[in-house]
Amino acid sequence: MSKELTKSQIDRLGDRLKKGNITEADLRLLDLYRRSFTKAYEIVVGTIRQDLTLEPTGRPAKSTTSISEKLRRESIRLTQIQDIAGCRLTVTDITEQDSVVQSLANLFEKTTIVDRRERPSHGYRAVHVIVSSLDKMIEIQVRTSLQHLWAELSEKLSDIVHPAIKYGAGDEDVREMLADTSTLVIRIESIEVRLAHAKTQLSLEDRFTDADKQKTAKIEEKIKTFKQDVFEHLRKTIEYVEECLGENNDLSD
Questions:
Q1: Helix, strand and coil in the chain, % to nearest 5
Q2: Which of 88, 101, 110, 169 has the least CB density, counted as fewest CB within 10 Å?
């Protein structure tokens, strides 16, 4: 039934969602529109599993609240939203992230790559690969493990402090903390990239001596230790925020 909806019908629905004038009929219409992405989503996820042997996580449909907020926050129409349906791949580091993004670009015929690493969105860093399947846009988020933990922390703080936190608004101290943490992640991943590049160049030029290998191994061990410390800091912060969120929920019951 959703395939009978025209672009103008969908965008008029988006206008009503943006204004907050949502009726039961609109909710049913939106549900039909979201469900029209299900088959395309399943094809994309199935292809990734079969051809890349990776396991995506995610959601087949964006929530009503998220859609309405995005329409109000950005100057776009409902038919222009690229993440009505989407999934996520979490990888070890930047090198693997680049490799997976390239594999996705090779795997799917029509893709658009949005790299949010060089220009983070309020601290958020990732690479989004937008895939066209059955004339539907499906978003694949590719994050490193550190980028993912940062994004999870941002989401939790948005839940407990203010929804606008992850979009650069809300409490200044919280925003500053997220910005500082994002900068720390950037520094760690930048060092990893430079070290990997140096190793590759030395190997290609046949100048990677035993002494170089020993020095590199020591640097890699220090980076690994520092990275693990950041992991633990982010995890503990997330656990603390979850506890606070739980306490707030208990008080509201």
A1: 65, 15, 20
A2: 110
